[in-house]
Design a protein that fits this description.
By secondary structure, this protein is α+β, with helices and mostly antiparallel strands. The chain is 25% helix and 31% strand. It contains three helices and eight strands, in the order αβαββββββαβ. The strands form two sheets. Strands 4, 5, 6, 7 and 8 form a five-stranded antiparallel beta sheet that branches. A three-stranded antiparallel beta sheet has the order 1-3-2, with helices on one face. Strand 2 and strand 3 (57-62) form a beta hairpin. The two termini are 26 Å apart.
Length: 131
């Protein structure tokens, strides 16, 4: 697999389109950190790391609106790809939907949102946009 982050986002996107409640994703440290960011920002309901075999799994409970059944995540978009990496300084970090969405950024201090990176005044690789 050449792009495990794109695979992670695609599995989430497919599970949301199929109205699944839970999705299983092969684990890695980067995927675990992205999952924590999505949980902290309220895009997923819950998550659990399961250690089965050498790699393990991430079990993610997706979040839906109880009345309209609309998913909390409308769009997941991969920005920095293996063939073309996208880096941004602290001043040039993107604003997703004028601040309503988040950009997940990989910095020297770990994976965080664009807002947290702006406050910490550090840039990094823009992994994806979520809204």
């Amino acid at each position: 697999m050449t792009d495990p982050i794109a695979d992670y986002l695609t599995r989430l996107r497919n599970a949301i389109k199929a109205n699944h409640r839970v999705v299983d994703i092969p684990a890695s440290n980067v995927k675990k950190e992205i999952t924590k960011v999505l949980f902290d920002k309220g895009y997923i309901q819950n998550y659990k790391f399961e250690q089965e075999g050498p790699q393990g799994n991430i079990k993610i409970a997706l979040k839906y609106n109880p009345t309209t059944k609309a998913p909390a995540i409308v769009k997941l978009e991969r920005i920095s790809k293996p063939g073309l990496r996208k880096y941004a300084g602290a001043a040039d970090l993107p604003r997703v939907l004028n601040g309503l969405g988040i950009a997940v950024v990989s910095t020297s201090k770990g994976i965080m949102t664009d807002k947290e990176a702006r406050v910490a005044n550090i840039g990094g690789e823009v992994l994806c946009h979520v809204y």
